[in-house]
Amino acid sequence: MAAKKKVKVRARPRTGLAGAPLNKGFDAFKHYVHMEVDKKDLTAITKPFIKAQFSKADAAAILSNPDYHFYMYSLHAAAIYWTNVELELPSKYAHAIKRIKEYYNDLIEPGKMILAEKEQVAKATANIVVLTPKQRMFQKIQDTIMTDLDELEDAWIAGDEPEFDMYQAFKQHGLTGSHTPAVLQRLEGWLLDYEDAYHKRCEQAVEGYSHIKRPAMRRRIELIQKMIADIHSVKASSKATRKTRTPKPRAADKQIARLQYLKESNDFKITSVLPITVIGAMRLFVFNVKTKELTEYVSDSAKGFEVKGTTLQNFGEASRKIKLRKPEEVLPIVQAKTVKQIDNTWQKLTTKTNSPNGRLNSDCVLLRVLDR
Q: Distance (Å, rounded) from C-alpha 112 to C-alpha 60?
């Protein structure tokens, strides 16, 4: 039986400090360290040396200096490593360790200044509380719209009956639909108390508001109801202008390039949806602020609406339009309710329903789009 042939396994090439030549003299070793050893390895040599040679406080001060001090001079790392492996430095480098200590000793005072500055910064920021996004939102509400409501309540206590436009207040303070829940909760609390007192549903409310005359109480109830309606308008407007996560095809951009519409109506407190969301949608509600006509477009195409110039395409016979006598009552329903609820409201209107022509202009607010 033949003997097995031995397989030679090549040793992995040694790199970094592991491959440093310690048998060719210090000059060769120093050159190798300068050319072949990474700065992180140099730092791993110099920093332990500093901790071993200086007191804990002085070492902390030295090490607080920028890192380049600990790898900039490869000679320092080479001399420290050479002595660590108990090799003797040549005569021309006999004082190298002493000079290295002197170099690091000169870093103590600058390091102490750095540590002092860090301590001052730490003290200055110790009491700074980092708020979560939810806390920042709450703080913004408290500093703006809630302060306005406090002032309104103070005016009521003083006997005044000022007007208050909640929709404009939200715009002025830069608030959006995400800021509405807390405000709505407060307004609904007010409304419940005033209505309980006005309709005498709660003895405590009647007693608590007995100093307010009924006409004044009625005005406040109407104002609160109006503010609540404004809150819902803010929510609808924020939802309408919210950017879609899924980008529409480029063709959609070209379709709406010449589309004319009204971005926002302050009179009716309504905002247009992004026109690009109309492309491919199945149902579109449009309100003309000049004629006060509400139009419901229903697509009869599987690919939904398209736009050609300023005219809506692909709407069918189910589409309809009607003139509103009281837009402020109907528009919030169109913005927030279901198709069935909108249809029930439409059926109760007494004005005549007609068929639309699909043409849009600068008086038209794109009120709402639906995918069904």
A: 8
Q: Tokens at residue 276, please?
A: 């690009």
75 Cβ contact partners less than 8 Å away, ≥ 6 residues apart? 30, 34, 96
Nearest to 366 by CA among 265, 235, 261, 221: 261
pLDDT of res. 249 = 54
Enumerate the β-bridge partners of residue 308.
Answer: 311
Strands (E), 208-346: 264-265, 270-271, 283-288, 293-298, 306-308, 311-313, 320-323
Q: Give Rg (Cα) of the chain.
A: 39
d(CA 236, CA 272): 10
Angle at 289 between CA 283 and CA 293, to 5 degrees: 55
297 beta partners: 284
270 phi-psi bin (left φ>0, alpha ψ -120 to 50, beta other): beta
Secondary-structure percent of the chain, ordered helix, strand, coil, rounded to 5: 55, 10, 35
CA atoms of 174 and 144, how far apart (whole Å): 9
Tell me if 144 sits within 8 A of 166, measured CB to CB. Answer: no
Q: What is the three-class DSSP state of 363?
A: coil
- Supply the DSSP symbol for 99: H
- In whole angstroms, give the CA distance from residue 239 to residue 136: 21
Which strand (E) or helix (H) includes residue 208? helix 203-208
Cα–Cα distance, 222 to 188 (Å, whole number): 12
For 137-199, the three-class secondary structure string (H helix, E strand, C coil) is: HHHHHHHCHHHHHHHHHHHHHCCCCCCCCHHHHHHHHCCCHHHHHHHHHHHHHHHHHHHHHHC
Can you list the residues of the chain whose pLDDT is less than 70?
1-14, 243-250
Which is it for strands 264-265 and 364-370: parallel, antiparallel or unpaired?
Answer: unpaired
Q: Evaluate the CA torsion angle 17, 23, 26, 28 in order and state its sign.
A: negative
Residue 99: CB atoms within 10 A of its CB come to: 13
Q: How far apart are CA 337 and CA 35, in angstroms?
A: 74
> What per-residue confidence (pLDDT) applies to 303?
86
